[in-house]
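Schema walkthrough. Field components (list of strings):
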Amino acid sequence: MTKYTELEYLKLSKWRKFLYKIACFFVGIPGWFVNLFKKIGSAFKDFGISVKDDFVDIFTTFKNGDYKTRLSFVIMGFGSIARGQILRGVLFLLFELVFIVYMIFWGGYWISMLPSLGTQGAIKEYDPIYDTYVTTYYDDSFKILLYGILTIFFIVAFLYTWRLNVKQNAIAEEILKSGKPLKGTKDDLKSLVDEQFHKTLLALPLTGILVFTVMPMIFMILVAFTNYSGEFDGKNNLFSWVGLENFNQMLGWSAGGVNYAATFGEVLAWTLIWAFFATFTNYFLGMLVAMMINKKGIRLKKVWRTILIVTIAVPQFISLLYVSKMFAQDGLVNGMLLDWGWIDKALPFWTDSTWARVMVIVINIWIGIPYLMLIATGILMNIPQDLYESAKIDGANAFQQYTKITLPYMLFVTGPYLLTSFISNMNNFNVIYLLTGGAPTNAAALSPGGSLGYTDLLITWLFKIAINDSKFYMASVIGILVFIVVSVISLIVYSLLPSTRNEEDFQ
Amino acid sequence: MSEMNQLETPEVESKPKKRHMGIKTQRVISNTIIHILLVIMSVVWLVPFVCIVLQSFRVESTWQVGYIVPQKWGFDNYIALTKTDFFTWYLNTFIIAVFTALFQTIVVLCMSYTLSRFRFRGRKGLMRFMLIIGMFPGMLSMIILYRILADLHLTQGNAVPGLILVYVASSGMGYYVSKGFFDTIPKSLDEAARVDGATRMQVLFKIILPLAKPIVIYTILTAFMAPWADFVFARYISMNTSQGMNVAVGLYSWLNKDQIAGKYTTFCAGGVLVAIPVTVLFMFLQKYYVSGVTGGAVKG
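Field assembly_structure (string):
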């Protein structure tokens, strides 16, 4: 590939520029990977250096510190209390006590069980006194994994707090040496609504995200490396690590055994096709509708807009379920067409694979256009009017104005939006599940669980495997693969997009 | 709704292609075509909703029929609703929606305001981290969240507080739109107040919040509307226990193969009752919704 200088590049035609950019992207891939590894390497190096610095720092703090500081290494917060920073000290001390008690009574058990995920499952024993079978529960792998993760979180938090405690002592000593007074409890509390206000504001939201988003995510990633399925719950309660066995099955990278690679490829292909059509049909048609409504001389603009907006307000499960039934074999549409004599037998809207696939895309247009109409209206409004005027003077017709002014502007402004909407369409569970439930069934496809249909996306397939058949390990594998696909697409698109604006520009 | 007029875009006028046809005639023709298209579109968009309403008043049959206008009108389907658990579901959903709207707004505002205004260590990393975990399919978390909530006895019949907890706790991730809004409020306002001796908290409550009314209303509105439509998670948490269902889960169960023949028109009646309050609220507050959606898309 020939490399162009900047000047040569500017001389290229638009199409050549685009091709050149794509070529550059693919040529750049090896370099990109080299860079990535370099970055990872340097990140490790930086991390190593900072750990080393930390240890040196801790050591010098201990060596140079007075007895208060030294005692704080064992009794957290001692130094702070002794120096009059009561609140900080008490919090440190309390945290340490809670941690020690937790680790002795519970944490130790969970951590020690993590490698095996439990050895003794539930046992059903005959109880001669009551003449029944009694189940005795011992280890529960689910709980071991869950609380094991929590305990690791807790240990990391403790190490961090301990380091903070040491640092606090060093800082306090330095301040006292320079002859200034230390901040007391009152100042600490005051700073929480002032300099440290962000900590107060973020405490609750971040705790929520940590417990209800991050922790489940880590758990589910780990489940992909076990054989955890619904059959274990409440019965034997024991599952175990299986390494990469599940990925093996899903991607079929070793010969022999079950192999779902073909099915995965099929579903992935349809997911990408669906996401492409769902995103771009909505985008262009929505833009078209917005332009139609906003054209000069169109009456009742408010009415057209309102009609479309109303459809956003109605909860999707009502509209989608209703529309799905309308097009059913014995539904309204088929009934009316039969009555009018336009068709002889019911159209196979949801029973033929091609029909169903086209239908979900068409109905998705019906769902999506109002949103895109709103978004496009807002953006079209911002295009400088004089661009159009000068274009008109130069003799550009409506179509040229559209391709040379409106479209480039829209694409530039909504580039990131297109990406996010492509990704959310890949994971568009509602439309598919409520409309077809994945139907019609694809009998030929090999699936680890649930019945796979022709309109199933990866996300609905995952749902069926997890919920209908409780094969959580396979669902997790698919979840991880979806994550990889999505992040690869995002990376590619971001590197092709014109540089995103700096967020400070707005302020 | 008068604000809608402000949204008018620069009109794209077509230049005459043939000289002998006047600009005016051409415009009249193209405008007529567009008007016809708009009418057809409106019909297509409204037909399903009109059908739902009409079928909810149909008496003669409870299953789908091949015509739209009922032969016999009546309130039978609405009366039938009172004999089901529909109003329990309705109340459940309402409670969830109110509490979620309240707490989620607080969480989202805390998050977005902080990320927009403060420059602290790890801020960029935090935002990148949340972007990345947002790419992980959240559906998988359902399984474990169910087990956690079950340990807290917040599933099945008690699903309402459990659902509120989960909605609110994970809502911090959706800070993008309101952060975009806060980014547009000039920082000099904050700085002026800080120079005058206001604390960070006073700046938030006395200066920023009054200015942020549109985004607060947008957040409340979207948070209030979401629980009416949540279906997947609510169904999993309520686990076939009618007491803990929301309207979406309950109504969905009526369209099962074994229930649909007897419950189809009742479903329509229930759907109408759900759609009315949400739609009315939405129509009143739509200008805030429009500005939120537009701003969110532009700032990405």
